[in-house]
């Protein structure tokens, strides 16, 4: 592990931020591969969204019917209160978040019968969707000279942000 110019070892830290529920709009979709769609969500409720860690994830909620908001979780301090029965939801890794444009990119695997997959393929642009999270997580500071990045999307996000920032990037794959 590296030591900074000030002689201090960088430390990973548990970041705590409020888990929020927000309604974002489907801005665009693109085909990443024949079996993966990248959806871009955005809108004014992105303010306060946090995205800093390798395994950053959010829950996309899929009320049935879409206009039924009776079971959407409610904000309870820095947590969410979930009503039962739970609204159908799926966890997805945040591919990219841009606080300047207010855009969140999420990659969704296309497959038969998946509620998220069906939404990613069929939802009209401009449709609103509920997003819960992301939850708190451990942030690894940029001062680390080499980092094991377990989520491939985070690797691409880091390299796209500034490919010169890291002298070495190690990729760990888990099976």
Would you kindly provide a written description of the structure presented here, covering whatever features stand out?
A hairpin with a 2-residue loop joins strand 5 (74-76) and strand 6 (79-81). The model is unreliable at 167-175 (pLDDT under 50). With 175 residues, this protein is mainly beta. The chain has one domain: Beta Barrel (Elongation Factor Tu (Ef-tu), domain 3). The chain contains 2 helices and 12 strands; from the N terminus they run E-E-E-E-E-E-E-E-H-E-E-E-H-E. 10% of the residues lie in helices and 38% in strands. The radius of gyration is 18 Å and the shape is globular.
Mean pLDDT: 80
What is Rg?
A: 18 Å
CATH classification, class level: Mainly Beta
Distance between the termini: 25 Å
Helix share bin:
10-25%
What is the count of structural domains? 1
Write a concise synopsis of the structure shown:
This protein has helices spanning 115-122, 152-161; strands at residues 13-15, 21-33, 36-42, 57-61, 74-76, 79-81, 89-98, 103-109, 128-132, 137-139, 146-149, 168-171. The chain has 175 residues and is mostly beta strands. Residues 167-175 have low confidence and may be disordered.
Write the layout of secondary structure elements.
Layout: E1 13-15, E2 21-33, E3 36-42, E4 57-61, E5 74-76, E6 79-81, E7 89-98, E8 103-109, H1 115-122, E9 128-132, E10 137-139, E11 146-149, H2 152-161, E12 168-171
Parallel strand pairs: 11-12
Antiparallel strand pairs: 1-10, 2-3, 2-9, 3-8, 4-7, 4-9, 5-6, 7-8
């Amino acid at each position: 592990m590296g030591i900074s110019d000030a002689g201090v070892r960088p430390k990973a830290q548990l970041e705590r931020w409020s888990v929020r529920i927000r309604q974002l709009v489907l801005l665009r979709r693109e085909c990443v591969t024949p079996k993966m769609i990248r959806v871009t969500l955005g809108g004014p409720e992105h303010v306060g969204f946090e995205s800093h860690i390798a395994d950053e994830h959010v829950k996309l909620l899929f009320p049935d019917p879409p206009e039924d908001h009776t079971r959407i979780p409610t904000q309870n301090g820095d947590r969410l209160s979930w009503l039962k029965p739970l609204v159908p939801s799926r966890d997805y890794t945040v591919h990219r978040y841009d606080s300047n444009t207010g855009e969140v990119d999420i990659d969704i695997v296309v497959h038969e019968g998946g509620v998220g997959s069906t939404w990613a393929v069929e939802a009209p642009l401009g449709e609103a969707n509920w997003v819960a999270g992301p939850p708190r997580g451990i942030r690894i500071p940029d001062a680390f000279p080499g980092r094991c990045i377990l989520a491939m999307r985070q690797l691409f996000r880091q390299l796209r942000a500034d490919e010169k920032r890291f002298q070495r990037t190690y990729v760990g794959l888990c099976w």
